[in-house]
Amino acid sequence: MAAFDLEEQEQISQIKGWWEQYGKLVTALTIVAALASVAWQGWNWYVGKQSAEASALYDVIQQAAAERNAQKAREAAGTLIEKYSSTAYADLAALLSAKVQVEAGDLKNARVPLSWAAEKANDPALRGLAKLRLAAVLLDDKAYDEALAQLQSAPDESLAARYADLKGDILVAQGKPAEARAAYKAAVDALGTASKVEAATLREIAQAKLDALGGAQ
Q1: For 129-169, what is each residue's pLDDT tens digit?
Q2: Assessment of whether the complete model's pTM goes beyond 0.85
Q3: Helix crossing, 88-103 with 2-67: angle to 10°?
Q4: Would you tell me how many other CB atoms lie within 10 Å of the CB of residue 52?
Q5: How far apart are the C-alpha atoms of 113 and 6, rounded to whole Å?
Q6: What is the rounded distance in angstroms from the CA atom of residue 41 to the CA atom of residue 63?
């Protein structure tokens, strides 16, 4: 029994020695881990709250779109982009609000959310789509140079044909048939032998525009 007590005392002494050497480090690491856990939980709560509030505002924009209420859509989208720009809802809000403004004939206010999305949308694919739509709005507003500027950066491959086709339209409006032909030819070539209905239709349209200008030269 005494031997057993002696062993226990030795173990206790070893533990005490280890704790004296490493106790402060263990305590510090435990505190850091606890704080990290709290911070992570807090961050998840914050992100969830942001997403829920942004979703509610996006619902307002969808309702405004159904009602064709351009002002309501514009104001809700402005708030969503200002307060929740880091969410995916901000990207979608910008595109939907712009669509409502265009349908209302308000090209000036359609530019605002599209300009934001073209530069700052979280999704690169949506940035490319926003540039395309912004260029179309600028074309309708006869701001040809600004419209072309939106189409200068290399788009996602899936948008290449639409970029080229719209570029051709802008160049036609500027009275530059030779450059327009090159753009339409690029659109036709980008679509190749596309079989999907939408792509095939766009190819036919681009080819018709190209033919109307005398074909590729």
Answers
A1: 999 999 999 999 999 999 999 998 767 888 999 999 999 99
A2: no
A3: 0
A4: 10
A5: 78
A6: 33
